[in-house]
């Protein structure tokens, strides 16, 4: 028997976007070099190697996000224990919207995500750090 999915990705994204601050690209670029913001790249390392990343962004694979945020987790990363604004981004803004909502549910605050993701960042000629 086929699965009967009752809540699809469109609904999940719609719900996330109601709760999460979405940064317009120009604002995200302006904030990207500030010390009071942590940009979190959720893309797979292969994506980052292929296209680069926001300069200074912290790489956190989407599959590890909850484990790295939770201070009780053996995988916790101290970068998620700072009094800063966390700005999530991915390729197009879908993973980042869902991730930002999850981070907020866990208690991380303040949190935002980049509208259009890294694809829009590249199109707008935002600064890029390449990975060697």
Automatic annotation (TrEMBL):
Instruction: Name the InterPro entries for this protein.
Output: Rhodanese-like_dom, Rhodanese-like_dom_sf
Question: Residues in domain Rhodanese?
Answer: 33-130
Where would one find the signal peptide in this protein? none
Which GO molecular function annotations are given, in alphabetical order? thiosulfate-cyanide sulfurtransferase activity
Q: Which PROSITE patterns match?
A: RHODANESE_3 (PS50206)
**Which PANTHER family does this one have?**
THIOSULFATE SULFURTRANSFERASE PSPE, THIOSULFATE SULFURTRANSFERASE RDL2, MITOCHONDRIAL-RELATED
Give the protein name, as stated in the record.
Molybdopterin biosynthesis protein MoeB
What is the organism field in this record? Answer: Roseibium album
